[in-house]
Design brief:
It is a single chain. The protein is mainly beta and about 210 residues long. Helix content is about 5%, strand content about 55%.
């Protein structure tokens, strides 16, 4: 079961252009809460909290899951992220992930040369237009994205999706990622994140339903 959290796939569980233009900036509620399901069974929760101050935005993300197979606990997962936008521009991200006691930490910040990312294995420099895929911001699908859990650029193809969202959630648009990960996100007419569905390496289905 631990392969559910293969580094290439972890963006399912964690969250374009350098300037922020998503309507969610102004119209999202102060908090988004999702129940997380695996093959129809609830396994955890995902919270996103927004703190706005003038033209700046701070986003706090907290995820907790416990996955069982055959009545036994196989994976315990906890992820926290703090994302900051200054003057409508991505500025920094800090993440910490605990998967069955294995800790991963990422620190990303904007520099004159690009996005500097400190992670296990050292510091890497990503392109200046790279943004973290933390899901709440649909604008990221218009440019390059990096995985907030390991700091690496994602090798995916982006397309508009047309499948209905999970849980009967109403949505106005959706985006689909294919390649090293299979994920689809849905957004309402105001651009606010409403649902997610993804395929895990063991072929099980992960769904986020907003509550």
């Amino acid at each position: 079961m631990s392969d559910l959290f293969d580094p290439r796939r972890r963006l399912l569980l964690a969250g374009g252009g350098a300037l922020f233009a998503c309507p969610a900036w102004a119209q999202a509620p102060a908090r988004l809460h999702f129940s997380v399901y695996r093959n129809g069974m609830k396994v955890g929760d995902h919270d996103v909290t927004f703190d706005r101050s003038g033209g700046d935005l701070s986003v706090a993300i907290k995820v907790g899951m416990a996955l069982t197979v055959g009545g036994m606990l196989n994976v315990r997962y906890a992820h926290e992220a703090h994302e900051r936008w200054v003057g409508g521009r991505f500025s920094a991200l800090e993440t910490r992930t605990d998967t069955n006691g294995k800790i991963e930490q990422v620190s990303a910040r904007r520099t004159p040369g690009g996005i500097s990312v400190d992670r296990k294995g050292g510091t890497i420099l990503l392109p200046a237009d790279a943004l973290p895929l933390t899901h709440w911001n649909s604008q990221v699908f218009e440019g390059r994205m990096f995985n907030p859990q390991n700091g690496k650029l994602l090798k995916v193809t982006v397309s508009q999706g047309d499948a209905p969202p999970p849980g009967g959630t109403r949505a106005a648009s959706s985006w689909m990622l294919s390649g090293e990960s299979q994920v689809q996100d849905w957004y309402d007419a105001a651009g606010v994140w409403t649902a997610l569905r993804g395929r895990l390496p063991d072929r099980s289905t992960m769904e986020y339903r907003r509550v």
